[in-house]
Input
Amino acid sequence: MKIVGVCACTVGIAHTYIAQEKLEKAAEKAGYDIHLETQGTIGTQNELTPEDIADADIAILAIDVKIKGMERFDKITKMTVPTDIAIKSPNKLMEKAAQVIKQRQNA
Amino acid sequence: MTVVEEALDPNAIVVNSSAKSKDEVLKELIHQLALAGKVSDEAGFLKDVYVRESEGVTGIGNGVSIPHGRSVSVSEPAVAIATLTTPVEWESLDDEKISIVILFAVTDSTEGAQDHLKMLSEFAKKLGDDDVLESLKAAQSVDEVIVAFE
Output
């Protein structure tokens, strides 16, 4: 499973990056590929390319604020959650992502 | 220098603080940052930290909280850490009391502060690692606090 996503919080200094680390760790544990872009005070890092997004099975947007380039995810299955959820329950979020993809495939 | 050495001023680390409330520990850490020359106006920064507190929970679970504020009262981006002898009440994702407080001081303008802000974000990322948090909770000295992040 291939996941892309964006993390962004209000101040853009702490939750964004903690959420990124939590999700990366959880994806690694579950054996999924993950590429997360961060949009914070220091700007955009680890930016997703259109190819990254086109190749992904699902997008996880862990965001508390409006993000730049939201339209990039128009054509992909996505889950949008607050950064708090990504920090609190990253493993559950991975399970949920797997379920969503499975449901879509069965539909 | 490593990110951790750059981000952590030993003077802004308080081990086994006896602070008895959220307000006490915030004031103690802000005072340390002022002594380290990172905060110019303690009351002003405290106010901005509470503004962020009002917007959402800063306890990230496992007894750790990450209060932070963007403020004109911050002269240089910095981080301060307190480990508490007695856990204090604090709004958190898992409703646990807080025994580790990591305060991020962020400048109002990013101009000229990009490097420091980048360092803070790299530091924040480490807090997403449960192993780091466990070592931090066990730390009994300033050195052990620093080592917890390496």
About this structure: Chain B touches chain A at residues 52, 55-57, 60-61, 66, 68-70, 93-94, 104, 106, 110, 114, 117-118, 120-122, 124-129 (CB under 8 Å). The domain at 3-148 of chain B is CATH 3.40.930.10 (Mannitol-specific EII; Chain A). The beta strands of chain B are 8-17, 59-61, 64-65, 68-71, 78-88, 98-107. Chain B has a mean pLDDT of 93.
